[in-house]
Amino acid sequence: MKKNRVGKLILVSILLFFSCKTDKDIFIVNNADWLDIDGKLISAHDGGISQFDNTFYWYGSDYRNTIKGEYGKPAAKLNPGINVYTSKDLVNWKYKGIALAYPDSGWGSNGTSHRAHVLYNKLTKKYVMWFFHYATRYPDRMASVAVSDSPVGPFKILGFRETGAPEAYEKRSEDDERFGSPGCAQDLNVFKDDDENAYLVYDDGSRNIRVDLLTDDYLFSTKKTVIALGKRHEAPAMIKFKGKYLVAGSGVEGWSATETDYAVSSFPLGPYSKQMCMSENKTWNSQITSFLLIKKSGILLGMFDQWWVPDSANLNRSHYLWLPVSFDPETEIAKISYLKEWNPFTK
Ligand code: DGJ
Predict the structure, then answer these.
(1) What is the rounded CA–CA span in Å between residue 189 and residue 219?
(2) 347: CA distance to ligand 1 center in Å?
(3) String of b and e for 165-193 (b: at least 16 CB within 10 Å)?
(4) Looking at ligand 1, which residue's alpha carbon is closest to its atom 11?
(5) Contact between residue 260 and residue 283 where contact means Cβ atoms under 8 Å apart
(6) How far is 249 from 204, CA to CA, in rounded Å?
(7) What is the pLDDT of residues 323-337, one digit of tens each?
(8) How many CB atoms within 10 Å of residue 225?
(9) What's the rounded mean pLDDT across residues 231-250?
(10) Ligand 1 center to residue 69 CA distance, Å?
(11) pTM
């Protein structure tokens, strides 16, 4: 009997020893299919991560029904919505469902929605999601807002929002005839500063990356705006790192690989420095989507989408590429380092 108990104790100790993973054991492994903890492929493309308390929330687009890259009006209804996953360590992700369901009617029901990002507003105690909706005609390519009481949703769409963009000039087809109107936004992202002010960072339709100050409830643009990165950029990301504000964006290449350009300022609404480049090899065959400053390690994580890799016939299988970004606030030089495998919690 006694022998049995000792045996059990040893077994439990061995199991505990092997299950006690520490931060040192956490590795981001690039150039691989990423599965959630239930063994399913993670579908959270062109998105971003928010940290609320001690949990990371990864929001992103689901392309399971649009593997050939259908978007806009023809893909309406195929789009299931914006997915959300949670994790404590940035590596083991649990699928929490659709945070923003595709709407049956009203704003957002006639096209597809992309590039969702979420902030928590302390004043209203609401989670605020900004995303961009794409159909075919103006005002269809617009910034949109949804809110929820919970970070995993369900988010409720409030509607589209005008931005500080004075006008958009880019006309690509007859469909774009009425596109050149004020308040436009295409690819977008959000950024919350230490003083609780938040900003919308977006492609203004003329392919500039603009930064707008949001209202205190984060639900509207104040239309106080600045061009941070001039033409031609999309897929914007913004972060405060080592006391400076960095605004980055990709080239305008659709779902093809592009370098990552950036500009720096001491203030969120500028003035911004000249344009520089932080990547090599077309950002190792990817496009930027977001930044995350990992509080525990002080490491700046750059999130990128390796579109059509490894399967050129399946957009949804596209790999995620997460890499550390270094920055020298004196010289204002930022560099992304390519690492196949790395630990985001130790320097
Ligand atoms: C622009 C975005 O930046 C890309 O990621 C992709 O969504 C294309 N639009 C689709 O054409």
Answers:
(1) 14
(2) 33
(3) beebebeeeeebeebeeebbbbbbbbbbe
(4) 254
(5) yes
(6) 12
(7) 999 999 999 999 999
(8) 22
(9) 97
(10) 9
(11) 0.92
